[in-house]
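Known limitations

Structure tokens in this collection are predictions and should be treated as such. Users comparing against experimental data should check residue numbering before alignment. To illustrate the layout, the record for ADP-dependent (S)-NAD(P)H-hydrate dehydratase is reproduced below. The input appears on top and the generated tokens appear beneath it.
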Amino acid sequence: MNAAAAHSGADSSASAATVREITAGMLRDWPLPMPGAHADKEARGHVLIVAGSREMPGALLLAATAALRAGAGKLTIATAASVTAALGVALPEARVIGLDETPEGGLVARASSQAARELLAGSAGELAEGAPLAASASEKQDPGLAPPLRQACERASAVLIGPGMQDKDACAALVTALLPCCGNAPVILDAGAMCVAGGDDCMRFATPVLLTPHAGELAGLTGADKEAIAADPQPASRSAAQRLNAVVALKGATTIITAPDGDMWSHTGGNTGLAISGSGDVLAGLIAGLAARGASLEQAAAWGVALHAMAGEQLSLRHGPLGYLAREISAEVPALLRALSAH
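Generated tokens:
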């Protein structure tokens, strides 16, 4: 039996009643996929992050840095065209795709009118990596996603959508357009991208994705009371996971991770210093990087939550319980991964 199966429980009725505590020992018994000694960057996975906006490009920077610190081998980011130059310099490891923007600052996943004209003419150019942008007959009739973004989705080992995005309607349209192009890659929906899981037209996912709400965000998606969710997070997490067919990582002082089949994990740890702007973006990036390496969504969430908390504990020892920055969290992760892999 593999590690994932061992941690999923013997039967669904038992797993629904059992909450596994995430500890260092539990993580050591549930090891992450590791590349071979001679593996290249492709073997470590390719993360695509669609996120950010002209007002919040830093959220993407935090998430992308965390994905690389978690061990992913390649990184592509897609964000507002107005900030691509700055992010390209700040993230020299990444390929950067610029997207059109709505007046409210949202991202437009569809091809711009100029790109559509080029695609219809069969001259949309080539990707930076040298792969031609071959357009099918259906694409020539309906250009759909901007071709570089479509191909990035198809090549990704894991996809993160949401940190720092604005314009709820644009977010919903972007997620709806991207999901069919992601194939079998694990998808993490964070922050604004979770909007498709709320309201009267909420989406039940054909293939499970990972959602990362805190109590307030889950209250906004479900209409439930925020304080009630925070006081008793397990039933709220389980209900959302089953209703949406999603893995739900309900963040809080105790974080509850629930799979659609009812399997549940809990983590208590970290410190108040982690309650700082940008901290959730780092966590989303860590999860995406671990998923790109081959971890299941449940395993990536469990490890990501634990690493995030442990990093906060390490920073508090040096800086005190308050005052360290979200940008400092990721740098703690490689050493923590090494320590957790040691027996």
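For this record: Residues 153 and 180 are 9 Å apart (CA to CA). The chain has two domains: 3-107+148-341, 111-144. Please report discrepancies through the issue tracker.
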